[in-house]
Amino acid sequence: MNIGYLCTYTPKELIDAAGFTPVRIFAGDDQISLATAYIQSYACSQARGSFERALKGELDVQAVVFTRCCDTLMRLADIWERNTDMKVYNLEFPSRIDEESKDYYFRELQDFVNILKEWGGDVTVDSLRESLKLYWELEEKLKKLFEVKPDYEAAKKVQEMNVRDAIEFVDRRLRKVEKSGVGPKVLITGSVCPFLEVYKLFEEAGLLLKDDICTGTRFFTYNTPLKEIESVEDGLRFLVEKYFNKAPCPTKHFPNDDRFNYILELAKDCDGVVFLLLKFCEPHFYDYPQLKEKLEEMGKKVLLLELEFPIASYEQLRTRIEAFYEVIA
Amino acid sequence: MTLKKLKATDRMKQIMGGYYMMGKQTEVNGWITSGAPVELLYAMDIYPVYPENHGALIGAAKQGPYFSDFAEKRGFSRDLCSYARCDIGCVFAGTSPVGGLPKPDFLFACNNICNTVIKWYQVLSRIFKVPLFILDTPFVRKELKESYIQYVHDQLYEFVDFLEKTTGRELSDSKLKETLIKSIEGVNSYSDVLHMAKNKPSPLTCFDAFLNMAPIVCLRGTDYPIEFYAEMKKELVERVKRGEGAVENEEVRLLWDNIPVWYRLRWFAEFFADRNACLVADTYTNAWTGFISMDKSDIFWSMAETYTFIYLNIGLEHMAEAINRLINYYDVDGVVIHSNRSCKPYSFGQYELQKMIDVPSVVIEADMVDSRVFSEAQVETRLEAFLEMLK
Amino acid sequence: MIVAGIDVGSLTAKCVLLKDGELVAYKVIKVSPNLEETADKVFGEALEEAGINKGNIERIVATGYGRNKVSFADRTVTEISCHAKGALFFIPTARTVIDIGGQDSKVISIENGKVAEFVMNDKCAAGTGRFLEVMASALHLKIEDLGDVAERANRATKISSTCTVFAESEVISHLASGERVEDIVAGIHEAIASRIAAMARRVKVEPDVVLTGGVAKNKAMKKALERELGMEVKIPAEPQIVGAVGAALFAMS
Fold first, then answer.
1. What is the pTM of this model?
2. What is the C-alpha separation between B167 and B27, in angstroms, rounded?
3. What is the ipTM metric for this complex?
């Protein structure tokens, strides 16, 4: 069974350990049509576009796990459950990420293990140990690959396959990858962007990329070294640490403004920052003005590109990106 | 046609005028979201400031676009919640229809009404450089799990520590109990007012409820709502005795869903009254009824339970159940659904709710404060057609 | 008994005269900024056409976006009720009515000769006649020629934007990249049809499906809708005056 998910705060390791395949759901290339009968047009096109594919029967997933990322996905869970044959579960990831919410998240993970069991998948200490190790391996390899040269196609593809195939896939990429040339470097920051042509536009404009994108480095940037586990409970505790320490996302609340500091740190060696924001994405748009101000104080040039999926006009984007190149080069 | 005015509304204006005045003199204040447990603040004599109520007030004063513009000029997107845009806009403008809100000593956001408030209050905390406490209430899509209540329960204790540390004051158990009892009495008194709409014809419309809801939101836990709503009820009982409806010739009884369109309150009220239709109730003001279920043995546990299972923090099945309860209780013929661009958790799922509720419904597109997205002709046609269909 | 139905839309105004339930005359004119004058004019022209005196008209019902500007009407009824009634006049087996209007599109489901449910587009203009108008002008075409142009397409260019403003620039960029005008026009039709079909799915779509409004004369639109809905779409003899006929029928009762 394939279990779909939309958010990188979904514990893929548990799904894999239960014998299922976690599959990330992205918006598709077709115009959004069926979904408009179920959710208003001021929902972001990642939500509408993903649901569109479910309605069209394009998704080979039998269940979907939602985490409480934002108000839109919170409601989408019910809409999804009522209008598809898929099983739907919401794992309530805490919105505040600190010491006080760790126990709660641990209990949510325990509940999730029980749900996986109801769905016919057993998480054992051995299976969990293996899954933790495999994901760690995949994440390390992706990091290595991106250090040589960001490969958004690889990042996207591995999210749609079993972790074992994913590791092999990245291995093949690692053997072929060549270091990118020279040029001004930009940080792209935003939620998801599964449309690979967008990244190409940057490369074609002569820009080197670094990213804080949910379908890019935020998918594999965890900061908790792999640990041996003695029990399933041990594994769940490890997952709490792992997900609490991952690259921070604006949908969560961190003490000490960790999210802003993370971006400011990433931007240090970049010549400019491009906000690649999805129209109607509240978490990112609330951050944008103050983050932009801080970046500009650091002397960084900033560009905002507002996207809607599927992307209607690459040429419009190209003009903006090329102009930005001219500004920072 | 002229709308019937309730005398209570004048009293409400006095009370709320006093509330805003008080804010300018108070020693310690915290900015708080509308669904948060304000009782803890009142129990410690901390003045609660409600940016959402302030947003509604700006909307009703038809100044939404004006104040929102101050935020938009700083880069805040027009697609963000209009309460947030106005609130942030007023901070930048340094004023508002009530002369601006007092600078906060701390911020308190509870995401039981939306996740937006987390982001909005983060913005405020960076502007004011004051501490922010997030009370995280897990979304109850299906079952209210004990682990959810435990989590919220523990945070309430943590919040008390936060308050004591931030203000240097101490929370006394007896003062908290007293405040909670007042809160319950206030909520009961308020619920009695709304329940008057069960009468046929109804002595009040949801527009009366909208206009007079501020005390239960902002002053819950003080004496004001208890007295105010008792007074308001008396006036309504008189109407019922005289057989007088809020709308003359009440033919159709309707329910409103979502936050009101504040800048068009009067327009809507007249529109329906002209067509012998009475919006007897709404899902918004009803969200503050039956608020606290107090199990005296563990107050914090009861509060955690109550504040987690709040109307906007529950799944569609629970929501449909609540709406059907209102439909049944108030005997309504149809539902007017406001698809509110500013409020995603309230609006997404409405197309599903249409299929889950017991009477016909119509969707109109608007925004609670931003009048720039309101199209009178479009709304009018949809509502008129709906009434033609019902009659 | 002679009655009149006047439908003042955002682009055109229509007037219909019925005598004992039979259509005796109708007129369609373009709307001028002064809606009241427009209503007066279309009414006058219809009377002239029928050779009937104003005094002989027993009752007048106004409908459409400008219905409240028809000061001489006895009452107003919304275009939703009127389109349902009018559609039944032309096609008695109608169960679903789709009307693509200038600024509002609607899908109406009919049960037992009455409106059972209806949905209309959200605020945005995609999926309305306005969308076609904007696209026609971007392509330097007349709106009434769009259907014929689309019929000559080899394939339909994909139009992804749902927003009218963005779609306009998308169309222009398709032109710049050498797409055939015919294919782009076909794509525009598909885009609208898919919006309408999506909206229609919020009510029960049951045959017979009837398409009304001026756009119904456009064969390409009929075909695109049929493809999207997976069922035949019927067109009344005079699709543009369906709302006005409905209004006149209301005037009879």
1. 0.91
2. 10
3. 0.97
